Amino acid sequence: MGLNAYFAYTVVGSNGSGQVPYEVALTAIFIEGFIFFGLAVLGLRQWLARAIPRCIKLATSVGIGLFLTLIGLTYAEGIGLIMGGTSVPIQLAGCRQEQIVNGECPSAVKMRSPMMWVGIFCGGVFTVMLMMYRVKGAIIAGILLVSIISWPRTTPVTYFPYTPVGDSNFDFFRKVVDFHPIQNVLNVQRWDIGDYGGQFGLALITFLYVDILDCTGTLYSMAHYANLVDPVTQDFEGSTMAYMVDSLTISIGAVFGTPPVTAFVESGAGIGEGGKTGLTAMATGLCFFISIFFAPIFASIPPWATGCVLVLVGSMMVHAVTEINWRYMGDSVPAFVTIAIMPFTYSIADGLIAGVCLYILINSLVWVIEKASGGRLVPPNKDLKEPWTWRTEGGIMPPWMTRLASGKKDFWRAAHPNPSVSDAEGVAEKIEGKTTGSDHDAAMATGRGEKAT
Fold this sequence. Notes:
- The chain has 18 helices and two strands.
- The chain folds into two domains: 2-83 and 126-321, no CATH class; 399-452, no CATH class.
- The longest helix has 29 residues, at 197-225.
- By secondary structure, the chain is mainly α.
- A two-stranded antiparallel ribbon has the order 1-2.
- It has helices spanning 2-12, 22-41, 44-51, 54-73, 114-132, 138-150, 164-173, 197-225, 239-255, 267-272, 278-293, 295-298, 303-317, 329-345, 348-372, 399-405, 423-432, 437-452, and strands spanning 82-84, 90-92.
- Helix 2 packs antiparallel against helix 9 (239-255), helix 4 packs antiparallel against helix 13 and helix 4 (54-73) runs antiparallel to helix 15 (348-372).
């Protein structure tokens, strides 16, 4: 929610009291999406992602897990076990929201919220037991169970109490299927930005770098969680296309009047259920479209039905902490700072910035001291440091740009493994199965070399 909060409270402000009107802010987001797209096509975003040290990438996955856990434990989107305190930053809660006095739960009613206990046992423990026995759809079953328990109005855990707000929500819930015409679409941008030049540029740059870091951290942590990251290249298949799609959705979303539409950490719930391909995302998108017409039902799922699910997903993402290099402080301290900053600042980007900056500072100082002392002052266990380089296999630019720069006409095609054979000839050989003796010997030799390697 970091970008949404920045958009609403800083850029636009309460009743338009912020830096620029919301139409101008949406114009900045629209332009930012296409800048993103250009960076993705040129391969610069992928290079940036690969240049981030491995320990920071692993820490990002862990930090996002703790971030999800914090969300699941709060009132807004979870079971309400913790809340912001007045004398301390975070404190134990567990009371009903209407019982909160001066920003705190009175001691007499702490841990007395029936909604919290229903969420813990029916949405948490029940879901864990189903997952332990490998029951498909365990997460959905837990959410449905808590929701069904919370819908009747006569129970102490009802989502529709007899209050003006509860009555309004229940009236909407009873519609089951509803349709509202969307108005003022495609007319929400404002291009006369002359009066807002500096503020417009500030908003554009902020959205740009936060989106880069948020999306990079989310995509690579989700790919690592799904075990799809190549250990050699530290990349995942289709990363360029994923970045390009993310970029275009930002601009498309701005046309419809929304803050940046990007990849979010809730994808971990789908991965936890076994969804690891694009087909999962397509099916989810189709279900989202259908859910538009069943908005009264989906809008009536209480937060304590999903809170423990977020905690559960967080627990599954934290396992990456064991892969962090804790033996060398140049890797471990920046990783730990990344893990800690993400949940406590409620921002993936802030945690990533803190970790990367501290990594650069610590390891640069070690390098400077080593050079200045002629190699005599070196940390005793520096040999335990994980290797890092800004260089990536094949260079910064994507392979298709390298082929285009070399004058290759069909630059969109990957080069044939045998340089002496053109792409078309290679395909023909593969289809027809015609291989000369010399080519066969070369292929066998190449195969033996690859096997030995």
